[in-house]
Amino acid sequence: MAGVNLLAIDTATEACSAALLRADGAVFGEFEVAPRRHATLLPKMMDAVLMAAGVGRAELDFCAFANGPGAFTGIRIAAAQAQGIGVALGIPLLPVSTLALLAQTEFDRADSRKLLAALDARMQEVYWAVYHRAGDGCAELCGAERLGAVATVQIPDDIDSGVGHGWLDELRARASFTCDPGLLPDARSLLPLARRDALAGPGVAADRITINYLRQRVADKAPA
Questions:
Q1: What's the pTM value of the predicted model, to 2 decimals?
Q2: Which alpha helices (H) appear in the chain, and where do they start and end?
């Protein structure tokens, strides 16, 4: 897909980030680990990447956002911003799994071929999924995303890394490969996933987006 301006945002974890793929292929990004400051930082980051790229909001063709799983409040911040942009500009949205984004963040920085991405869901549970690097370089889901107790996480024999703060001590003790529990998703890595989705379909109307909580009873989560 040539000639599109794609804005991507993420606030599903402790990290807050925004990125822009300009029509000529140039990428601009902002990233900061800033718990409880997402609502303040995200609008500034969006303005910063647009200004750096010399792109006006009216020139955007798509807005992508990480739609969970992750921190309930954080997910809603990015979803609300994306929805506002979609409504105001009349452009489609591209919701992308936070676990897929986390996997892509690792694929973009390392030569891993297959990994298990995990996020701490509290209450001694984790959100987790296995991804492999597809031919286009994008993270592709193997099986399904899951939520469960740490002891129930199934670690395939053929993965070469583990990423995300869901790799708690109990889970890391079962790993025979490198784990990086400190890795957080970055909106720059949301861009290739969103671009792939844009090529596959028209995106989602702002009034039809859903959030991927995985946990049905969100209110039962322990407080942050």
A1: 0.94
A2: 38-53, 72-89, 98-109, 169-172, 190-200
